[in-house]
Design a protein that fits this description.
Length: about 140
């Protein structure tokens, strides 16, 4: 038996706190921690919103159901990559974040400052090449 791979398109989710448009002067990409609900993370960042600042909160691509809250409510957590398949996961992640940045920045004034902010414990090296890839930097 031999493990094989192939590329596929999938649907990624993100929260946009603020509205893309001509008033935006700063775009922040905010990456949630491992297993953290991106909706909960968005709520924690609400005091950072200004008319000139746009917060983009991409959800990691590997989603799973978190244990129920005390009231029985279920929510979704996500992880950015698996240690067992690090390089393909990092490539997928870089493509995802580059595509999202290109889409968001197209709706904003030319070349707003771009920030990447992460929350949580980093158990692996940061994503290589992001946001410093050429397509992101020139978007």
């Amino acid at each position: 038996m031999q493990l094989q791979t192939f590329n596929t398109t999938r649907t990624a989710r993100y929260y946009c706190v603020g509205e893309p448009g001509p008033t935006i002067r700063h775009v922040w990409f905010c990456l949630h921690g491992e297993g953290q609900s991106v909706a909960d993370f968005a709520a924690q960042l609400s005091n950072l919103v200004t008319p000139e600042r746009l917060l983009i909160l991409p959800e990691a691509l590997s989603r799973y159901t978190l244990p129920p809250a005390p009231d029985g409510t279920l929510s979704t957590g996500a992880t950015w990559f698996a240690a067992s398949d690090l390089l393909p996961d990092l490539a997928d992640l870089t493509n995802y974040l580059d595509s999202l940045a290109e889409t968001i920045l197209a709706a904003c004034p030319p070349i707003p400052p771009l920030r990447c902010w992460a929350m949580g414990t980093v158990r692996r090296p940061p994503v290589a090449g992001w946001p410093a890839t050429e397509s992101t930097m020139n978007a």
